[in-house]
Amino acid sequence: MRVLALLDGTLADPDAPLIRIDDLGLVRGDGIFETILVVDGKPRELGPHLDRLERSAAMLDLPAPDRAGYERAAKAVLDNWSGSAEMALKLVMTRGVEGGDGTPTGFALGLEISPKVLAQRAEGIAAVTLDRGIEPGLAERAPWLLLGAKSLSYAVNMAALREAERRGAAEVVFTTSGGSVLEGPTSTLIAVRGRTLTTPPATLGILPGTTQAVLFQAAEQAGWTVVVEPIAAEDLFTADAVLLVSSVRSITRVHTLDGRALPDSTALHAELHALYESQY
Ligand SMILES: Cc1ncc(COP(=O)(O)O)c(C=O)c1O
Questions:
Q1: What percent of the chain has pLDDT above 90?
Q2: Mind telling me which InterPro entries this protein's record contains (predicted)?
Q3: Which among 63, 182, 235, 262 counts the fewest CB atoms within 10 Å?
Q4: pLDDT tens-digit map of 65-106
Q5: Residues 233 and 130 placed together within one structural domain of the fold
Q6: Ligand 1 binding pocket mutation candidate from 171, 187, 243, 248 (most atoms within 8 A of CB)
């Protein structure tokens, strides 16, 4: 089941050609996107996702996204969805066609969540650490690298996932060359030690996660300590839990890292997952 809507709120056939071959999103990956979890017809964190779309647009010198248009398109997708209770809602904006008048291409697409992701939510995942070649300070020093923007240029992230598969794992924890933890290719990393949750700072050049923000807020209200500071990759092996979180995968625990079994975090994961779900 897929539902496609344009920013004027009209539906389009997801199986019919729509994007021009000279669209810069297609030929250069020059654009931005968001993926939002919808449960029982309710989009989670739509506002923060649209805010982040705006931040990404500013980082790429794109025009401000047509917020009302994206809300309209999202509503059209939700109103016409007859698939599973959970949906992944993608909002996409590209720089438009090469040599055109600068009008961005935009659409909203509702998709089923893959059974693989649903299984990983329940069972946890094996991950490997991979060097992302990012050093502290690089994001600020070289803003043209677009570190921390949710751009359409995800080929590197997908290549990292294939490398993980070659190494017998399903996921990746990116690290700086100095061995500090960054994020997953499509997720935020959270380490749990005692009653403290820690995530690396976005200033390292990673995407500020909406799921992480919701979990941290819920955890803080429930008496946990939440910390945003660098984490050494070595410290993950002794953490009580290592989590990869994102809108679609929700809270997923890493049970194996670089082929080494991590301490059993089943109970902690269940507790934090319930805490996250209590926000909805
Ligand atoms: C690189 C990256 N980091 C983190 C995340 C998690 O963000 P969110 O929780 O807002 O989905 C994503 C989401 O896809 C991502 O692509």
A1: 99
A2: Aminotrans_IV, Aminotransferase-like, BCAT-like_C, BCAT-like_N, Class-IV_PLP-Dep_Aminotrnsfr
A3: 63
A4: 999 999 999 999 999 999 999 999 999 999 999 999 999 999
A5: yes
A6: 187
Q: What is the CATH number of the domain that holds 138?
A: 3.20.10.10
What pLDDT does residue 2 have? 98
Number of domains in the chain: 2
Burial of 88 (0-12, 13-18, 19+ CB in 10 A): middle
Give the number of the atom of ligand 1 that is nearest the alpha carbon of residue 157. Answer: 1
Rounded to 5, what percent of the chain is helix, strand, coil? 35, 30, 35
86, 113, 140 - which closes a domain: 113
Beta-bridge mates of residue 228: 199
From 186, 189, 243, 245, mutation site for ligand 1 pocket: most ligand atoms within 8 A of C-beta: 186
Domain, as residue range, for 7: 2-113
Same domain, 162 and 257: yes
Q: Is 56 in the pocket of ligand 1 (CB under 6 A)?
A: no
* Residue bearing tokens 């009653």: 195
